[in-house]
Design brief:
Helix 3 packs across helix 5. The chain has five helices and four strands; from the N terminus they run αββββαααα. It has 173 residues and is mainly α.
């Protein structure tokens, strides 16, 4: 199943993300074949229609994998949170600040759990991400160099006054 999620996401290029974030094997013993394994799968993509396609494809293909292995598969949707687009002009402020400072920048898809997603439902919002060693985040091994943290802070420091000096309401370029 993990390989299936990985294969599906690699076929979608940079925009798609898929994660098997939890695995619970029972019994949890290194020398016993598990009688039951529970796992979570999460798909992310900026286009909701693509998430729908991934979801449907996963259900079909996962059932096929289970049949081939002689295993039973029960899938339960736990939640569905649509992608939250950030305010384009606020995103532009971050991109422009990075350019002024000579830092590379690219737009990425962020997951649904960040506080900024909920803030963006009410006020113009964007996020600034910094590099992490080996691209690893949300993990105890996550780390970044001081100069990488400084770069992210400096981009924020450049963008906030520009936004603060605009009239209240939507960000405007």
């Amino acid at each position: 199943m993990i390989e299936l999620v990985d294969r599906m996401m690699r076929a979608r290029g940079e925009q798609g993300r898929g994660t098997v974030g939890q695995l619970v094997a029972s019994p949890n013993s290194r020398n016993v074949i598990s009688g039951e394994v529970r796992f979570s799968v999460e798909f992310r993509h900026p286009e909701e229609a693509e998430v729908d396609r991934m979801d449907a494809a996963f259900v079909d293909e996962a059932q096929g994998v289970a049949r081939e292995c002689g295993a039973e598969l029960e899938l339960t949707r736990l939640f569905r949170i649509p992608a939250q687009r950030f305010d384009p002009s606020c995103v532009a402020l971050g991109r422009e600040a990075a350019a002024r400072l000579g830092y590379p920048a690219r737009e990425i898809v962020s997951g649904s759990g960040h506080d900024a997603v909920y803030v963006a439902r009410h006020v113009p919002t964007a996020m600034i991400f910094t590099l992490c060693k080996d691209g690893l985040s949300h993990n105890e091994a996550e780390s970044m160099l001081p100069e990488e943290a400084e770069a992210g802070g400096q981009v924020l420091f450049e963008a906030v006054p520009v936004r603060a000096n605009r009239s209240v309401g939507k960000c405007q370029s």
